Amino acid sequence: MSGAMERPRRRRADALDVVVAGGGMAGAATALSLAREGFAVALVEARQPRPWGPQDELDLRVVALAPSSAHLLSRLGVWDALTDARASGYSGMHVWDAESGASLSFDAAERGQSALGWIVENRLVQHVLWQALEAAGVRVECPQTVTTFQAREHDMAVTLDDERVLSTQLLVAADGAASPLRDMAGIEVRGRGYAQRAVVAHVTTEREHQATAWQRFLPGGPIALLPLADGRSSIVWSMPEADAEAVLALDDQAFCDAVGVASDFRLGRVTATSARAAFPLRLQLARSYQAERMVLLGDAAHVVHPLAGQGVNLGLRDVAELRDVLVQARDAGRDIAAEHVLRRYARRRRSADTLDALSFDALSRAFAHSAAPWVGLRGMGVRLLDRAGPFKRLLASHAAGR
Ligand SMILES: Cc1cc2nc3c(=O)[nH]c(=O)nc-3n(C[C@H](O)[C@H](O)[C@H](O)COP(=O)(O)OP(=O)(O)OC[C@H]3O[C@@H](n4cnc5c(N)ncnc54)[C@H](O)[C@@H]3O)c2cc1C
Questions:
Q1: pTM above the 0.90 mark?
Q2: CA pair distance 283, 221, nearest whole angstrom
Q3: What would the CATH number be for the domain defined by 7-400?
Q4: What is the pLDDT of residues 348-395, one digit of tens each?
Q5: What is the pLDDT of residues 177-192, one digit of tens each?
Q6: Residue 333 Cα, ligand 1 centroid: separation in angstroms?
Q7: Checking DSSP bridges between strand 302-303 and strand 165-173, what pairing results, if any?
Q8: Are strands 212-218 and 92-97 parallel, antiparallel or unpaired?
Q9: Which pLDDT band holds residue 1 (cuts at 50, 70, 90)?
Q10: Which of 58, 138, 235, 332 could form a disulfide with 133 if both were Cys (CB 3.0 to 4.6 A apart)?
């Protein structure tokens, strides 16, 4: 298509540049990011987010945010609100294999950083983003769902459940792993269920967490102890479905004992636990991140194993890439929803996400074997990696999102 043909037509004053469907962490960050760049943006979210307050009990759902996510949230002007509220920076990471005993450590100081990452509540991240939406000029439609959409020659018609129709150049589907919009666009996914669930809880341990993220690989799946701001640790313990059922059914004392054993008492005995919850785990990648006048982003595009703590970090990298691609197109006077513009975003992010998703998948498989020769090899590999400076630096840079 020639540049002249792509030039945007004059649009109605109420027409939007971008409609974002889904106001979770990825969707809210997209809406805010694009509004800050001067686009006319509406955010459509089905459920009113639960408000966050400093007196509230620490939410069970937490994520480890990588430096790349911190950078994006700083650029959006919400990082200070997040860290002032309740974030726990960690400067160390220690990963070890239960079977071979081999371990791998990372230290922020060695890398000239203040932190390797931050543990924050999902609800708090969403809260600080939503607090900023209105001032940035985002039109918030909530509670409201996108029920249908249709790409037309010069715009996309997005119908809400109260039957209003929004006219937009581009529709961003950030509506989560089960993405109804992805299905409506006819985009298939590939992947597999892990037949595993992640049991999460906040636990009190005998010893301090030392601002370190601990992760022990067991044949059934890894257990992570992530340092929380109040001194407790948040556990993410991946295990086969049936084991998860059994662990959820334990009384508190037995659960604490089981977490102590699983973590090899690295932080001493576990003396108390919060309520528990469990989440099914799957690997899922959309076959394409793009349809006519539409892109997928966040969990709508990719779902990965939580062992590397990267799910939302990948989603926020999608946000940064989409912002850059759309700003560049607009500044060049191009249609921001032109097929080749969206292709740039879709290709770049899909190949990066695929590489990450498959690496996490390979990692989960590699640690699932407990046959002796395999354990020996794995132990050797981990020890080598820990000593091989350049490889280790590369791994740390990648996890940080650089
Ligand atoms: C146990 C566990 C631990 C994890 N740990 C980490 C970690 O340490 N680090 C990390 O980076 N990631 C982690 N993740 C992954 C992370 O939680 C997800 O990647 C992230 O929550 C996905 O955010 P999202 O905004 O893409 O989707 P969601 O949070 O699912 O948001 C989608 C939103 O879309 C709305 N919606 C749905 N349909 C419609 C519609 N038709 N119209 C309008 N709105 C709609 C929904 O109401 C919802 O609010 C973990 C995941 C699990 C399960």
A1: yes
A2: 15
A3: 3.50.50.60
A4: 999 999 988 888 877 777 766 666 666 666 666 666 666 666 556 666
A5: 999 999 999 999 999 9
A6: 34
A7: unpaired
A8: parallel
A9: very low
A10: 138
| CA 212 – CA 12 distance, rounded (Å) | 53
Query: How far is ligand 1, taken at its centre, from the CA of residue 314, in Å?
Result: 11
Of the candidates 222, 230, 241, which has an alpha carbon nearest to the alpha carbon of residue 202?
Answer: 230
**Probe residue for ligand 1, chosen from 197, 302, 312 as the CB with the greatest number of ligand atoms within 8 Å:** 312
CA-CA distance, 55 to 101, in Å (whole number)?
A: 41
For ligand 1, mutation pick of 63, 168, 317 (most atoms within 8 Å of CB): 63
**Which of 328, 194, 207 is closest to 267 using CA atoms?**
207
Å from CA of 62 to ligand 1 middle: 11
Residue nearest to atom 40 of ligand 1 (CA): 145
Atom of ligand 1 nearest to the CA of 147: 41
Ligand 1 centre to CA of 300 (Å) is 8
Identify the band that residue 131 occupies on the pLDDT scale cut at 50, 70 and 90.
very high
Q: Kindly list the protein residues whose Cβ atom lies closer than 6 A to any atom of ligand 1.
A: 21-27, 44-47, 63-64, 122, 145-146, 174-176, 180, 198, 200, 236, 279, 298-299, 306, 309-313, 315
pLDDT tops 90 at residue 401? no
263-319 pLDDT, tens digit each: 999 999 999 999 999 999 999 999 999 999 999 999 999 999 988 888 999 999 999
